[in-house]
## 1
Amino acid sequence: MSTTLRHVGRTRRWPVVGDAIYDGSRIPARVPTVLDVPPHLRDTDDVLTVNFGPNHPSTHGVLRLIVDLDGEEVVGLSAVVGYLHTGFEKNMEQKTWWKAITYPERIDYVGYQNNELVFVLAIEKLLDIEVPEKATWTRMLLCELNRIHSHLVFLGTSALELGAISMFWYCFRERENILDLFELVAGQRMHTRYFQAGGLAEDIPIGFFPEARKFVENMPSSLDDYLTLLDRNKIWLERTQGVGLLSSDDAIALGQTGPVLRASGVDWDLRRDQPYLAYEQVDFRVPVYTGGDVYDRYRVRMDEMAESVKIARQCVDRLERMEGEPWIADDRKVVLPPREELHTSMESLIHHFKIVTEGYRVPAGEVYVAIESPRGESGCYVVSDGGPRPWRVHFRAPSFAALQATATCSQNTLIADLIAIVGSLDAVMGDTDR
Amino acid sequence: MSDFSKMPGYVSTKEEHGETTVVVDRAHVRDACAYARDELGFNVLMDVVATDYLGWAGKGVSGYIGTASGRDLNAPMTQGLQALPDVKPARFSVSYHLLALRQGAPRLRLQTWLEDGDPVDSVVPVWPAADWFEREQFDLMGIRFHGHPNLARLLMDDDWEGHPLRKDYPIGGEPVRFSPAE
Amino acid sequence: MSDPTRLRDYGLQSERLLWPTKGPSRFEEELGVEELEQALGITTLEKAVRWAQTKSMWPDTFGLACCAIEMMSIVGSRYDLARFGMEAFRSSPRQADLLIVSGRVAHKMAAPLRQIYDQMLEPKWVIAMGACASSGGMFNNYAILQGVDRIVPVDIYIPFCPPRPEALMEGIIRLHEAHLAGIPPAYERKQVAT
Amino acid sequence: MLSDWLPFLIYGLFALAIPASMIYFSFALATRPRRRTRARVIPFESGVSQGQMRPQRFTVSFYLTAMLFIVFDIEIVFLYPLAVQLHALGWFGFVEFAFFVLILVVAYVYIWRKGALNW
């Protein structure tokens, strides 16, 4: 890795770029996720407690922040989550592996392809099944498109909250193009359920590559439009620079990953440092900024969108050359046999029947797979007892860790900056509450 | 992989699917985590997961049917051999997934085994990120983390009884009615 | 009329409401409104009020889960809810007429949802967007309310998961049609204390 | 004499009639239940409101910001009559008002340097 390896004390060996944003640590001492009202203000009734409640336009879902205000200044903050707790893990334990694949998309419903990918990779790791190359590259293409989609939703909504309302319409114009691609390849805009344990559910339809090529060609120009619209906008810079500071030490101590971590000066991206799928055969740059504020998180996500377009272009080039290749493994115990084979071979009929009724079986064991989702490291811990149903599934949610940093980032800020900070952490409540 | 035997409270190591699982005694969890962070450089706590093994490997929980060497489409008679999964040391397992931010991204799973009601030392002093992770496991699985600054329910309502993710907790919801007549 | 909770009890044979073209809408034919009123172009005050109410029904941003992302996309330029005068998504229930429950309702979120519904002013409507809001969807477990009509009277249920923006638009158009045709909002039909 | 006040009277009547009709129709055509449920009385606090907010003290900086706004807002109100009569007053009006604006600019620079504008 090109970055200098900073040896600050024995415990701090990690790739840090640039010097620290603030010295020491700003994580609240008593409880790391709760900002306590300073003692001199505690008993006076100058402090106004406000519910930044579950139904608030700017909390990106049902997050509730109990904010103590001294005038406009935020002096106390504690986040309350759980308003969207859906009991995914309990439900997935009741379903067979085949049916359980439908659930993970709804966890982080903005980066849904990545969620489905992490669960499918975990099953394949337990099965140690060999996935054909065409499926790997298609998964990578769809996950990168989903990353652009997720960053567009972030940019649209957080700019909307800071007053740049027209950004919402620009970003959702591009988002519609991406959803058209998902619909073309998988039949539905969101929650496509296109990945199977062993490859893809169906082959790629004929007209997909010209459309994908067209999107990949004119997306960079749209990205430049956003930059010209926002990057020299005085109000946007005033509202985002120097707001919500998070140093690299605090980011690592709070378990931050993804754009929040890279904006705090830690050069870490799972796609490059722990490559999965075929990321080592694709060249892309990992943007790292050292400001650690709302502006740098926005900058990291903008550059990541440009990088994702580059990766998507390389995927489309590569996939166009793999025309007739198999798109799913051919291990009959796990993968449904093709339809025409059912009329002739008895074994295929039996396998088909066993897979559809009882579900394929995954060898006993526990496994933890982590990928780079748009919000950070999205991990999936799966325990199997060898039966047709998962014994325990647990998703490591990057938004869950991101919201732990609200107390650290929102020290001595104004109530208006709090909206920018919560927007920049880009937490999706489904991912947080699972 | 580097040798973990000098870790306080070390019990055993397991290498599986390319992942290292170090089982640690319940009483020394915090020292083991501090050791892993300081000496072995695992500076990020990714996740704390509790798993309930009630009814594991019991009758009717069908293990993997197949030969020891693996699946073979054409090898007849690979049915019948119901390989029951190995018996677990205790009912609950709490796994700490750690990551070292350096070349090769080494990962480690520190695992402790405990019965219902046994407290585990909280690792919030070692990694502040553990605050919500442990609260969630207390809320959903009922694992008591000793020394946690603010151990309360996180995801469920404050007056909720029971810990939903336990195996003996019913799934809840409603029986599906397929016709209004039912 | 024993218990006027179903549309059929209002004398409507067809659940399928058609967008009113030039002539009286399918409803009025069935309800037997004479043509005189139509011919002379006169109308009742109540109809005029109802017409006005459907022309700018402001929805409340009640985005819960994945359906909220699709609800956001109908404000986008391709599906554009502004054509029905509804693009102003109010965040306070005092100024909202329509509560689109988009997403799965956890038990912890049920009380705030009910309080927001109570704080909305009459006439108010509720659209249960998506399978999770209509019936708990695929989450038949301890955490999710099995259908939002357990706590609030719902006017329009929209299937799919998540519903396409077109599906949500059709739900909204049908709500307008039903209101234009004189069907009272759900809290009146189901006699629910508002 | 009285007749040239007639347009003013008609204008006044309209000014009264419009808000009065709004208020009347909002009650006459309203489809609102008679009794006010508890939820209508308590404030909207994103859905988790416990009850009436207890009266709380506001910090003085709000008051300061309000006063500064009034000072610089009234300045615009004086601009209107000047704009109407500017042609008649000619250069005299322009210089007179430039002096008036200058005083306020001095005041503005003073409070800006004193830091009363940032919170």
Note: The first helix of chain D runs from residue 6 to 28.
## 2
Amino acid sequence: PGGKVFAEEQIVYRLKWLINASTAGDVFASSQGFFSREKLNVEVKAGGPERDAIRELELGYAQFGVASADQVIRALSKGARVKVLAQLFQVNPLQWIYRADAFTLTRPMDLAGKTIGITYGGNDETIMRALLASAGMDETQVVLAGVRYDYTPFFQNKVPIWPVYRNTQGILLSDKLKAGEERVSFFNPAEHGVRFVANSVVTSKKMMDQAPETVRRFTKALLAGWEAAMMPANETNVIRALTVHDRDTSKPVMRSQLAATRLMIQSNPDIPIGTIDTEAWRQTEQIMARQGLIPGPINVVDHLNPDSGL
Amino acid sequence: MKAKLFSGFPLTHDAQMSLLSCKDIRFQYPGTKTPLFDGLTITIDRPGFHALFGPSGIGKTTLAKIISGDIAGFSKQVKASGKGPCLYTYNQERLPGWSSVGRHVEQSTPEGRESLRDHLIHGFGLSNLLGMRFSQLSMGQCNRVNLLRYLLQDFRLLIMDESLANVDEPTREIIIYQIKSTFPKAGFLYISHNVVEVARFCDQIIVLRGRHKNPRTRLIVGQNHQKSQPLDKGALEASMLEIMNAA
Amino acid sequence: MKAKLFSGFPLTHDAQMSLLSCKDIRFQYPGTKTPLFDGLTITIDRPGFHALFGPSGIGKTTLAKIISGDIAGFSKQVKASGKGPCLYTYNQERLPGWSSVGRHVEQSTPEGRESLRDHLIHGFGLSNLLGMRFSQLSMGQCNRVNLLRYLLQDFRLLIMDESLANVDEPTREIIIYQIKSTFPKAGFLYISHNVVEVARFCDQIIVLRGRHKNPRTRLIVGQNHQKSQPLDKGALEASMLEIMNAA
Amino acid sequence: MLHRRIYQFFIVYFLGIGLLFGIKLVLGLSDYVIPGPSNLWNTATAEWYRYLGDVLNTFTVAVVGQVLSIIIALTVGVVGRKATWFGSFIKVAAYNVQAYPIVAIAPILFILLGDGYLTRLFIAAMICYFPLLLSVIGIMGEPVADIEHFYRITGRLRWQLEVKIRAFENLYKLTTVISGSATLAMAGTIVAEFIAANAGIGYSIRIALYQSDLSKILVALFMIGITLSFYQGVLEMLGTSLKKSWAGK
Amino acid sequence: MLHRRIYQFFIVYFLGIGLLFGIKLVLGLSDYVIPGPSNLWNTATAEWYRYLGDVLNTFTVAVVGQVLSIIIALTVGVVGRKATWFGSFIKVAAYNVQAYPIVAIAPILFILLGDGYLTRLFIAAMICYFPLLLSVIGIMGEPVADIEHFYRITGRLRWQLEVKIRAFENLYKLTTVISGSATLAMAGTIVAEFIAANAGIGYSIRIALYQSDLSKILVALFMIGITLSFYQGVLEMLGTSLKKSWAGK
Ligand SMILES: Nc1ncnc2c1ncn2[C@@H]1O[C@H](COP(=O)(O)OP(=O)(O)OP(=O)(O)O)[C@@H](O)[C@H]1O
Ligand SMILES: Nc1ncnc2c1ncn2[C@@H]1O[C@H](COP(=O)(O)OP(=O)(O)OP(=O)(O)O)[C@@H](O)[C@H]1O
Ligand SMILES: [Mg+2]
Ligand SMILES: [Mg+2]
């Protein structure tokens, strides 16, 4: 019989969020055949608020996934055996948007007396608290306001400092305000010493032990996909690939989003895409431990596999 | 004494006009093949206690509803004299359950008829039942309570569709005498399957006859007996026979 | 011919035993002050067409339900002879509305009684109504259809609570004669307010009397008239008088 | 009846939109808080066709979900109608499960059912069935003495017959609740898509919300409303003809 | 009746928990996916008191929301019961608003009502009222001819009396639906808190979800269930005594 001698391996890859510019490399790796070149048949599944890639790994619904660092650390503290393969975002896209004409935030002390939106229970809460603590500020010096998916309080200026994903929502919001003749700025905690890791690629320890070769091939293909997706030359193709899934974002917006994403995936051209920032992971664990979000130390560094894709 | 008590009660009926006249009524239930009535004509020329009589299923209830307007669309063909509406009451009506029978009757008594009400309650043998809910009454008690509240209303004609069917004969007799003496000038159409009763108490008896008989109705004169009168047994039997032959 | 037709029908009643005996029944409706029955005792010593008679509200329906078990808790005090249950039927029962009356009756006919059913349908004057829904029937038609389906069942005693109250007299007469001739050895307890009827057709008549009368019941022997017999008018009037005096 | 439902929906919808524009005008809100008419119109012309597809997708799930929920409600209602221990237990179980907000048990559902069509269907059915259940229990728990007496006393009253009698006697109430529950099935499916799907109008609404695009949401609501009005109208017509054929009137 | 409801709830809850533990055991899952007994127990002892407070907070909103929704449902149901144009219009409006998933109209609500107590109450009432409405329309739309005839023919049948008669004749169905709707009010309030509040158990569940902490969610579900069983039991007792006092039986 002709055709393929080896069947492609069936893989499910669960993203953390809906498909948008933040998942450019994931989608591109799949659409441009990076996976199939590695003899992998990968189904890239969009995530969502009720999705949890780590749970799906354990239940066998997925073999690889994207999870935020706080998810990984929490899961590890509860005995989940999960391994980090690559860190996609070098800079956490979670930042705070505000109207540039109203005030300027150059240092954490500038937050004093202002109303800041945080998602209670979300990692923006953790980050903001860590930031305030590292700046030696008391929480009573600011007003924390719980926010949800609905931006109306920000639009109405009731909560003037609002947490957003800089590379996606950030672009949309600044466009909207621009249309209303208002300028925006972003407040980025990483610039003030809080380096809280964002999305990373994870798999289960079982996968790691039983199919190291698959893990290697997957990581390699994925990172190659990201590499290609981030090249400005490929922008049109990336946008085409994303538009298949994301029909709601216009191309100009997507272009801006991709530009912003690039700066976060590859903040320093010398550091290869996917590099795990061990120091940032250590800091992330410390922050979580200090805020009582995990019961004790878990040495997250032991669960990072910086070489898996090489 | 009783008669005097209610001399103040407005008697709305004009003895000069005919009580009821139905002309050329045609009615067919939807979904049935033949009309129940086809050109039915009836006249009763004076107020009083009259009857509508005929075998089961012949159309008494239907005709009654047509006259009262419960079946709509016959306002042109049906005429009744006097002021006030034609009321139709039947033996399966119920009173609401949330308070006692006495309270409901009280609430549906028009102003100024309180003594009439108390008089009827007593005469109908309901005095001891006023504190009960309707659902606790026996069938005959239900019949009586229901009829009573209708008698308190304004009407030019009251059609009683087997309204006393579940009441024992002695009580029924008392009630009929009482109605006749209390409302001597009002119009009643009494539907009953009891020939003796109809022949004895009613003034005129409309007998509804089978679909293929001609004419469809016969008007027979009954004994229209009052409590104080002597009863002529022979005449009664003649009326009964006439009714039975007509049906 | 009719009687022969159904000679195969199982007549489950043993003429030696008493049909019904109730002993020392005490019953009070919850929420009422005085018991309706207090030590009530009744015996009917043989099958046949009997009656339960008494003024409205005296407790006929209640007693009937106690006997049939519709009001539970009296299995010790109530004994009835023969096989099969005591059935209780009343004039306000309805048949389900989703198919025709004929279909419902068909479905509730026990096997082997189809010819009995057809015989009764014809005798009750229901042949033309089988295609109709129950809600389209007149009151007397409802009465007949309902009674008919009970007669097709197994029973040791059938209590008919005003089951023919809304049927015209000639039809009622036909039906009663038919029941008596078709089920000569079964037990019936017929509740009716019609003295003539009760005195003429019933064998024994239990008269329930007012709360303060002693004894609470009287057993009167009626004419138990059959279709073929001559009717002794004098004896009938005597029975009627006896019943009326007892009540 | 059908066209009346639809033009009445138009009135309702445009009253609502008018109200929003009124608020915008009075409070002087900018376009990103409440979109203006031209913005809305542009969005409508650009998106209506795609949203129609999404709504129809959602709609098919909703219909299956509704059928499922009718079955569940009838089953639970019939079992739970009796005042027995088991009946009341079933009721307690059904009520409790209902009290748990679907968002809270969604993680558990994902563990049990995985993601995809089944979960979507299940959530839709869960949201839709409870109101049906309440009515079914209310209807099935109450005897229709005048009809049931014969069957009870002659030993013929199987539970099927009992259920049939009570359903028939309350046909108007049942058809009202069932045709009304279409609304709930639709809303339930949308919620399910909102939390757990990659298709359907709920998913589109979710993205529109994420992008803070109120005009898209308003267009989506229009498509939902028109579809539902149509469906409801059809259900009511079915209900009427059922009543006609079953009750013969 | 009350204690029966509560111990039946215990059975339901522990059956559910047992099922989860079973899955955990069979599939060898970590505490992250399904918490183990000791994990659950620790969370329970640590959090039950705080969650109790949250549940009671939610509960008070739910009760007010339920009362509100009963009022709305009765009002709309009474107006919409007639087969007139206006009646059917009110019905269309009520049905359509219901079909819009609350998450989609939350931004609009937010603009109109702000966030906080009112929005929470409103959403709770919105979720709870619709099933009530369906029953009320079903009940109010059907005449009770044998009782109403007298009042109609004598010109006494005001709408209040008509409503009273139909309500009374369907008291069992109404009390079933109303006491059952407590569940919906509770679920509705939780949803409201989930999408639009900073207090109550819905808000706590939301945080627990963010933290992927299933054991907290299970403890929260327990507190919700027990409160609701209690409330439901009380409502049923009230219903029974209402029936007693109103219907005299
Ligand atoms: N809704 C209906 N649809 C079709 N036919 C009907 C309907 N109601 C009554 N009928 C038929 O019309 C005829 C007359 O019915 P109606 O109730 O007027 O009789 P009636 O004279 O009052 O009888 P009864 O003395 O038994 O009450 C009957 O044969 C009945 O079957
Ligand atoms: N549920 C109940 N609660 C209280 N009292 C009741 C109840 N049902 C019946 N009664 C009373 O018990 C008495 C007997 O009622 P029952 O129905 O047995 O009378 P009946 O002899 O059949 O009368 P009728 O000939 O009028 O049908 C009546 O006075 C009635 O008011
Ligand atoms: Mg009639
Ligand atoms: Mg009786």
Note: Chain E touches chain D through 69 residues (CB under 8 Å).
